[in-house]
Amino acid sequence: MKYGHFDDIRREYVITDPRTPLPWINYLGSEEFFTLFSNTAGGYAFYKDARLRRLTRYRYNNAPLDQEGFRLYVRDGNSVWNPGWQPVQAELDSYSCRHGLGYSVISGSKDSVSVTQELLVPQGDNCLLMRVTVENAGKSEKRISLFPFIEFCLWDAVDDGANFQRNYSIGEVEVEGAAIYHKSEYRERRNHYAVFWSNRIPDGFDTSRDAFLGAYGSPARPEAVFGKGCTGSIAHGWQPVAAQQFDLKLEPCKTEKLIFGLGYIENPQEEKWLRPGIINKERASAMIARYSDDTSFENALSVLKTYWNGLLSSYQLESGDEKLNRMVNIWNQYQCMVTFNMSRSASYYESGTGRGMGFRDSCQDLLGFVHIIPDRARERILDIAATQFPDGSAYHQYQPLTKKGNLAVGSGFNDDPLWLIAGTDAYLRETGDWSILNEPTDFDNDPSLAEPLLEHLRRSFNYIKTHLGPHGLPLIGRADWNDCLNLNCFSESPGESFQTTGPSEGPVAESVFIAGMFVKYGRAWVDICRHLDLIEEAEAAEKEIAKVEQAVLSAGWDGKWFRRAFDAYGNVVGGQDCEEGQIFIEPQGMCVMAGIGQETGEAEIALQSVGNRLETKYGIMLLQPAYTRYRLELGEITSYPPGYKENAGIFCHNNPWIVCAETMLGHGNRAFDLYRKTAPAYIEDISEIHRTEPYVYSQMIAGADAPSFGEAKNSWLTGTAAWTFVSISQYILGIQPTLNGLQINPCIPRDLHSFRIVRRYRGATYRITVDNPEHVEQGVREITLGGKPIQGSVLPVLDSGAVADIHVLMG
Ligand code: BGC
Ligand code: NOJ
What we know:
Blueprint: E1 4-7, E2 12-15, E3 25-28, E4 33-38, E5 43-47, E6 54-56, E7 71-76, E8 79-81, E9 94-99, E10 103-110, E11 113-120, E12 127-136, E13 142-155, H1 157-160, H2 164-167, E14 173-176, E15 179-182, E16 192-198, E17 204-208, H3 209-213, H4 223-226, E18 240-250, E19 255-266, E20 273-275, E21 278-279, H5 282-290, H6 294-312, E22 315-318, H7 322-342, E23 357-358, H8 359-369, H9 374-385, E24 395-398, E25 405-411, H10 416-431, E26 440-443, E27 446-452, H11 453-465, E28 510-511, H12 512-531, H13 535-554, E29 565-566, E30 572-573, E31 583-584, H14 585-593, H15 602-614, E32 615-616, E33 619-620, E34 623-624, E35 650-651, H16 655-664, H17 668-678, H18 687-690, E36 698-701, E37 712-715, H19 720-732, E38 735-738, E39 741-744, E40 754-761, E41 764-771, E42 780-785, E43 788-789, E44 794-795, E45 803-810
Parallel strand pairs: 41-45
Antiparallel strand pairs: 1-2, 2-9, 3-4, 4-5, 6-13, 7-8, 7-13, 9-10, 10-11, 11-12, 12-19, 13-18, 14-15, 15-16, 16-19, 17-18, 20-21, 22-40, 23-24, 24-25, 26-27, 28-29, 29-30, 31-34, 32-33, 35-36, 36-37, 38-39, 39-44, 40-41, 42-43, 42-45
The structure holds beta-D-glucopyranose (BGC) and 1-deoxynojirimycin.
1-deoxynojirimycin (NOJ) binds at residues 344, 358, 360-361, 481-484, 646.
């Protein structure tokens, strides 16, 4: 069942039923000010850091669902409703929510009155804007009252939800004209405040939640709206809010527009006050003035559209398959950008109070946005690398505000170092900017330890090389990509963190997955060395890689698939003799992507086993059979009920690894089949089962063992976005950046007759047409550039600004 549809021309998803199975959200903002906004106008805003600079309050995991947001109440005689349906939930005559690129538009109508809320965060400014349009489509005059309403957060979202003995006494506001200033803690150490404003003087306002909602009132039935109107309350402590009232008289066919804003203002210490007790509002007034009329809102919207069109134009596909086009051209790239902005911090599943920037996560996200924003990718790589320890290992995460590594989830995840090579390699292939390798980069955020970035990659490689176990496979440390496979943890106390408990280095626990990574990204390191003429180093590295590859093919091979690991006792994890957890997806994907067993046949057999043992109609499960009881020696993976998360869920992140692996073996049909299984646009019809947004990937879908098989969770902030974009753009459609230019090697479903890609690459524009008249899955017969055949399959690097037409003939 569908709850809406795609509008590809406008690059929007249009929700037509507000009762979506879960809130379906959008992200507004792409610089420093952000807003999460749901299809019923729920959500929250923050500046830079969703925990420490939270502007509006949000109660996660609440019933009713999604209660706080950017509310607008419409009072029309005795009837009260919201254009976004929530929280009053009055039946509407019509409803739609259009989530676009960086903006959202909610429209609702009832009894001949239609109201539209358009929200966006303007480029270059720290505020959220909301334009409200009210139209009387009836035949008689209407007297309508409008009430916008938001609830302020007392800045630190964790403290806000916990430290009530203090917080109930610190709330402070000022009201001046059409603006409400939230200034809690400004009297002491903060030099920032929030301001909610409208571009016309309201007929009433409230700043105390009790006054607006009523002490036992609720957002679904605010006393002010249902009864006597706003009271002009000034909040002293308790819960400061911003609510306003506008009494409008609308002739038939008349429209009124109002602009609202929610801004974040910082003042220099010496300019905090206008006079004792009264905050300096100069910067706020300037912000309000910037958006005082409809034209300024229109301008902000058009700047935003230009910005997004520019970003997405770096990879545009015309394939004849509208679902594929919309994933590649719009939503997959958009989601990649959201992961760039948010990492794993704020979504409707990540509370914004916990996880910062992950070392491994950020390196992988980069694979999906490096072609869109190479300059910012460069900065990101250097930030990540600066948190690396001198021995090559890494903090598992770092804080976006300070850019310093932290030990909240520990260190010693032994895949981390290799992801730095993966990310840097992707950047080099995209940009050809070798100067990044010379950038002096701290170790452990200590400038006295700084070395060129190249040295960081070397230490990454060497760390794995010098941390091998008894089978010659890399030691796993705390865990590898699978945070929940904790082979050295042995936790018996409830609530203890699986990620930080136990020794990070066990005596022997080894990972076949990291071995696959070492082969794949070790070879990338070798290519980098060769490019820099570090021939001896390259050759020495190749020998180490060959040894590990051999170890994978002997100790790591189980007969029909690659094993997952050896535990701390030296027992096989992910082998046919295991009681449960006999086969895992990760090593099949990574080892085949690394080319292991490609010539000797293991790769082919491993992928067949994936099909036979792990594949379902909704995607490929992480492992089988699911673990049915907690196992001390395996850790968190066995803590989840069967079918959920890492315990045999369909973990969307590693499905594209199998897609890439299938193309390595030339299986275009199969690769595309698997790609479609989890690609949101293809499963829009089963939204009532899938439940999360049909325009973005989720981290996981419940596996076949779960009672809710097919149900997705944790949408938006997942490495799935980057990896699926890599799988479709580089492996299936086959436009792959290399150190020397764009390589063309499509591996497509046989019935794809032809497609066209416009790819921006190192400043030039490549207009590539691929024809497949013989309906093959792989194989390039001829490539012409500007009408002339080229040797091999790598397009040369063109001058910046050049535009070239390329024709590829498959067969
Ligand atoms: C989750 C993992 C996640 C980890 C991060 C675990 O509870 O299952 O998906 O990577 O926490 O700390
Ligand atoms: C989510 C984490 O963000 C990611 O780093 C990890 O690889 C996966 N979970 C699998 O455990």
